[in-house]
Queue: 2 jobs
Job 1
Amino acid sequence: MLAHINGNFKGKDIVSLRQFDPHSLQKLFTLASEMSSLAKKAKGSNLLHGTITTLLFYEPSSRTFGSFSAAIKRLGGQTVDIINPQVFSSVSKGESFEDTIRVFESYSNALVIRHPEKGAALKAADIAAFVPVINAGDGIGEHPTQALLDLYTIYEKFHHLDNLIGVFAGDMLNGRTVKSLLRGLSHYKGITAYLLSPKALQLAKEDYNDFAASGITLIQIEKEEDIPKNAHFWYWTRVQKERFSSLADYEKVKNKFILSKRLLSAYGNKDLILMHPLPRVGEIETDVDEDKRALYLRSQVRNGMYVRMALLALVLGKIK
Ligand code: NCD
């Protein structure tokens, strides 16, 4: 069972944006903003001194792994880094998932897990009885810390998270960052989400119904001409190649919608922000990067570290 945050993060597993509420998000953002000032000072902090967090990554990751690692170290904590345990550790000898979680739980104060299977983080949370588990991406399920930094980035710009219009482009079916972000936005009123993707990459029916029932107005579009000109943010994503069983199917749907200067001048507005969870693989042209509205290689990335610093401090009970 997943605990709701309700303003108190201490000891809680962070598996889904379902656990959050506006008050808890606000608390996290306030702390993330303090972390950004702290990180800018050369001195750093010892808030997590004496703690060890295991980063258990069953799936490739560079930025999420690096962001967690940097966040922990900036606060004086330490990490045990386990990358690809299915290849390099006892898992390759046939050790069960349960045993692996129990072992690393006993070494650490928190576990951060990324896994190719949807539901694996929840399973790990159920197994680990003594330390909090943080989901760093479970297959096509969720990616809560990415959504937290995305929400913080939108909040930093607009100072509110209700009454927003967002355009989501790319892979709605397999993209976990889209699902976590929509789940986060569903805690606010007046959200309209335009979902731009080929039919084959639209949200699964179950997810669609779930988000619609949560109060978000969902508008599925398949043509760039249907992009609204009054959006607050564009959230571009990569087509998730690794989730396809056939390369030919991937080739058919990849990069149908490319964010270019032309698209931006046709449908953008001056207050719009451009976001992408990264990595990008061609779906945003590089000459868009210089545009002031492009946050994906700027504050969106930095905010990931600040939000993770704040989250770890709260979950490890170092800040109330
Ligand atoms: C995302 C992921 O892993 O889901 N990347 C990330 O964590 N920054 C997005 C992606 O891989 O497309």
Note: The chain has two domains: 17-143+304-315, 145-300.
Job 2
Amino acid sequence: MIDALGRNIRYLRLSVTERCNLNCLYCSPAKDDPATLLKPDEIAKCVSIMVKLGVDKVRITGGEPLVRRDLEEIIAKLTAIDGIDDLPMTTNAVGLDLRIHDLVKAGISRFNISLDTLDRQRYKEITRVDGMDSVLRAVDLGLQLGVNVKLNAVLIRGVNDMDLPGFMEYVKETPVQVRFIELMPIGSYGEDNQDKVIHPEEVLAQFPELKPIGRASGGVATVYKADGMAGSIGFISPLSHAFCHECNRIRLTADGRIRPCLGDNGESDIRPYLNDEAALHKAIYDAIYHKPTGHHFQDGFASNRDMQHIGG
Ligand code: SAM
């Protein structure tokens, strides 16, 4: 559907839980409130309306989607909706190695795996869990299954920028795209550490062999490659290269709120309308239509919710 600014909103980021099995330095888990957590049927009802309004890509995120017990039921209900062309999942992939076959069979089209370092000790320091082996096994299994796998790393100066050469070596041999994401001022760590954000230009200066090959993910990522590299490097830079004017996303939180912009605190609670199809349709339409012009990351933005509530 076209919003008030003429943007074609086609991409839903669907958070299915606020819980997580990691406790990252910059993003800590929360708890689901059973009174407000959307049930699989309720999720399907909301997503069906969004699909009627033009959404054709639904990304499952969280919290950590893998910790939601009825995840398979949610996926089954989503795959039964006619009109979803792409059903990817964003996950930290701890434990994914044991479930990837079933999830792919269930209908997950591809995986974006969050992995901020390839160093086991640093992984433990960032996530407070010794889980990196499971993540790397999941990546290998995904590649064996022929599923598209991307790795997402939030680059933070002094925390994981020393891993850049390791990531470059990794993509030389491994046909995955590693995307470096700017640390956003969401959550107290992100707000307090904006001086540690690393922009693409700094990485590109360090690795001049990287040459631009285009844009991906609806224009959100700029992608680079060096000669002979099996994979590629992408940058998602909402701070230094904002893409708000062409943003095609909306978000549905695990507790039933539409948040049309990550960097704007406006949300619409659609739970009150779950039993009234026409009212639910109108609430969703209104929320999408009035998607904000853009984020406020550069204007001293203070998010009313942390990333684990919103879904990234
Ligand atoms: N648990 C899943 C995962 O780890 O991919 C999905 C949810 S997690 C909130 C989604 C993404 O948001 C992760 O890649 C995480 O690194 C990223 N993230 C969390 N806080 C962030 C921040 N302040 N700035 C940029 N990215 C952030």
Note: The chain has ten helices and twelve strands.
